[in-house]
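STRUCTURE:
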């Protein structure tokens, strides 16, 4: 399989980047995009050239660390699939692939395909947690949670924080990501005591670091965890609830 690769090269955040073109022979359809980059890097290293820098961790579609943009699509052409699970069988022999970092004002490029996603970390630091008393673990049945409620919370907790939803959004909004956190924790009783404080903190952070949501829907198509578009409704719902209950349950 022959492919032409245009890959983004950028030495550091302070210098302009550029696309570098490579012709690849001998690629296999069963290769993932990450394996394709490894294959190219082997050739670059053998030639004494600098390999392409990119993030990678589990390579099992769990962590989302590997997120890149492929032909203007975050992660790649297959919907709801992370970059490490996108395979060359989705492309045609002789096709040109453009590989670049996840594009968003909130994700400055560190090097080549590696971006700084600490803006998402700040959202979690702002309110993606519950405060509980330390000590002996409570009995498993001490807090009754219905099956439907538990499954709903788990569906929203599935978000892996890869950032593809933000890169896919024309406005660079993080409402799908923030909405999944707010939905998850407001559904469970453990998240109730700090619900209003959490909402204000998270929403303040996304207002400062990300763009506004216009309900385009590209985020849900790209999300590897299949977080539904309905998650974004939690942002305005929790914003309104927190405003109405200011001073009552903080």
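SEQUENCE:
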């Amino acid at each position: 399989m022959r492919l032409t690769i245009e890959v983004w090269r950028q030495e550091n955040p302070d210098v302009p980047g550029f696309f570098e073109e490579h012709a690849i022979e001998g690629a296999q359809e069963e290769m993932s995009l990450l394996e394709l980059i490894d294959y190219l890097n082997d050739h670059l290293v053998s030639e004494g050239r600098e390999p392409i820098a990119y993030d990678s961790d589990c390579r099992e579609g769990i962590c989302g660390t590997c997120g890149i943009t492929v032909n203007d699509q975050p992660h790649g052409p297959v919907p709801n699939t992370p970059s490490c699970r996108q395979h060359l069988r989705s492309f045609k022999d002789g096709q040109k692939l453009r590989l670049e970092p996840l594009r968003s004002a909130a994700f400055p490029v560190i090097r080549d395909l590696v971006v700084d996603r600490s803006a998402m970390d700040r959202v979690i630091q702002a309110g993606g947690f519950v405060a509980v008393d330390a000590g002996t673990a409570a009995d498993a049945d001490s807090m009754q949670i219905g099956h439907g409620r538990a499954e709903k919370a788990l569906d929203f907790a599935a978000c892996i924080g890869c950032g593809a939803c933000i890169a896919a959004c024309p406005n660079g909004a993080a409402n799908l990501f923030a909405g999944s956190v707010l939905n998850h924790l407001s559904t469970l009783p453990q998240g109730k005591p700090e619900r209003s404080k959490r909402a204000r903190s998270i929403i303040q952070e996304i207002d400062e670091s990300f763009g506004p949501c216009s309900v385009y829907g590209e985020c849900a198509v790209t999300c590897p965890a299949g977080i539904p578009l309905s998650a974004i409704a939690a942002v305005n719902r929790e914003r309104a609830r927190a405003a109405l209950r200011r001073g009552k349950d903080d």
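REMARK: The two ends are 60 Å apart (CA to CA).
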